[in-house]
Predict the structure.
Amino acid sequence: MPVSGKTYRRIRNIVLAWLTLVALAGFLLDIPRINILEHTARNLYFHVPMWFTMMAAFFVSAWRSGQYLGSRDPLRDTQALEAARVGAAFGVLGLATGIVWARFTWYVGQGIWWNFDPKQTMAAVQLLIYGAYFTLRSSVEEPEKRGRIAAVYNLFAAACVPFLLYALPRQMDSLHPGAEGNPAFSDITHPTMRVVFYAAVIGFIGLFWVFYTQRVRLATLKERVEDAFRT
Amino acid sequence: MKEPFARWFAGAWAVFEKDLRLELRNRHAAGMLLMFVPASILLIFFSAGQEPLSPRIQAGLLWVVILFAASIGLGRSFVSETDRDTALFLRMHARASMVYAGKLLFNFLLILALDVVAVLTMTLLLHLQVAHGGLLASAILLGSLGLAGATTLLAALIAQAATRGPLLPVLLFPLLVPLLLSAATATRHALAGGDGWGASAESLTTLTAFAGVAITAATLLFDFIWND
């Protein structure tokens, strides 16, 4: 069964209050001024959690797909689909915040929007896979068959994608922290920033949970209404 | 213990033999690939003009041609079973893993034939110069194995979908980005000369691992597509 309305509303309220605090702390607290980065460093609180959230959504979706193949419970298929949808939305946001950030720091004065950075490429490939997953779903009519085929594709993609982590960094240079010649994230971060950043990660994953649960509940309700009209 | 494996192998071999015989009878896939590969390389030749291409671009173009040809030519391997209504018959006589193994072997050989045509045509038209023949062969062999593993599963998948036309490339290409990157790197080192084997050891490892994981995952997941 999907999450009950009571639990959903309680966690939603906590997440909204939490994210409000994160946004306030993110914009108002003092941060160290680093050359070139300056105030754009605050984007750390929004850009990076998008990726954490997309990865979390990706795992939830693959996990639900596996459960669907085991149980053939339509709820599992709905959960896999909605996790992928919300994950794709977070992926687009992560790409957008990253492109704008890179344009005015790494590529300032060069006028470049897109440079093949490994992490950027990986995000683009992941979004392409989500797109293929949605396209595949739209080409099958029968719900049982659609769920089965989509789950197989989702799990197969989950097996192939991790190779990018290994193959990409050897092909192209990265400007992201932690890459060669760049200090890792933990070396450059101010204590205040670190606290706000971790809080933001938890908050955005919570926001994913809220959207995901709400969409699953909505889909289940729609199904129930349609069934009632049919009989 | 030996008996069940021998029977499994005989079943997989029978599926392969059936596909091979059908192919030799009408030469549908082979004819199409033989036309598609030279035609696309000719298009590259016309659009690039007389400009000599660097090994990096040659390696990239070679793999793009192979990927496109495979995604077009191999899409039929399961659609033909559904079209002729032979899928049920096959399902009665062979286990899912036998069918997958037989089709995989046939597709792998088809891709190898396609590779040979592509390399020969590129040597003829685009002056491909191979410094390390063995390295080029290993890169193509390993890359084609991973490509065949992924394509065979996805071909079975789209045979069940209602709109089959352009679906296979859409599903296939995002998954094959790691394969394309490693295969193109190894091929580039094979063309450019220098310390080819040492420089492409990592790429060959990635290709081997990708082929292993793709075929294992596909074998496990194929059950769910084949026996509905």
About this structure: Chain B touches chain A through 34 residues (CB under 8 Å). The first helix of chain B runs from residue 2 to 26.
